[in-house]
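Hello forum,

I keep getting stuck at the same step: I have a sequence, I want structure tokens, and every attempt I make locally crashes halfway through. Rather than fight my setup again tonight, could one of you with a working pipeline run this one for me? It's a single chain of 176 residues.
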Amino acid sequence: MVKVSLTVNGVKYDLDVPPTERLLDTLRNRLGISSVKEGCGRGECGSCIVLVNGNPVHSCLTLTSRLDGAEVTTLEGLAPQGKLHAIQVAFIEARGVQCGFCTPGFIMITKALLDRVKEPSEKEIRRWLSSVLCRCGSYPLYFEAVKRAAKYIKEGKIYFDEKEVREKYHLKVLAR
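Reply #2:
Ran it on my machine without issues. Output:
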């Protein structure tokens, strides 16, 4: 076993993990974070993308034992309780959620992109979003969502009230 200290979504965890345990398994099985999905298990589909120290990584290819002292952000950590991040709202508004399996990966790669490029070009958006596979073929909706999110962030609208968004769009379940 390897002792690892991680900060996940702002909460510090001291864990004993096998040296070969993947971050995906640590997040889902040990910490109960369900937004991180295993699609291919080979780093090809992007459904498992999370941010480690602000950088997008495939959690299915990342060993937890190598992340001592790291800060990990998942979809659950994007906004404070009762709020939604501008990216989440933009995906809802663009109707960019079909089956929802790939949505957390798309939202996390979008966060990494918009942290680096405030007004990304269509080419940059396509390049970054190519890291995630959508079997429903919703790419045009995702491109629109990234543009909307960039606009909100530029305007200083980072967080939205979750209850208001639910009511406005008649939502029972949100992509969290």
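The helical segments are 23-30, 86-93, 103-116, 122-129, 139-154, 162-169. If your local run keeps crashing, start a new thread with the error log.
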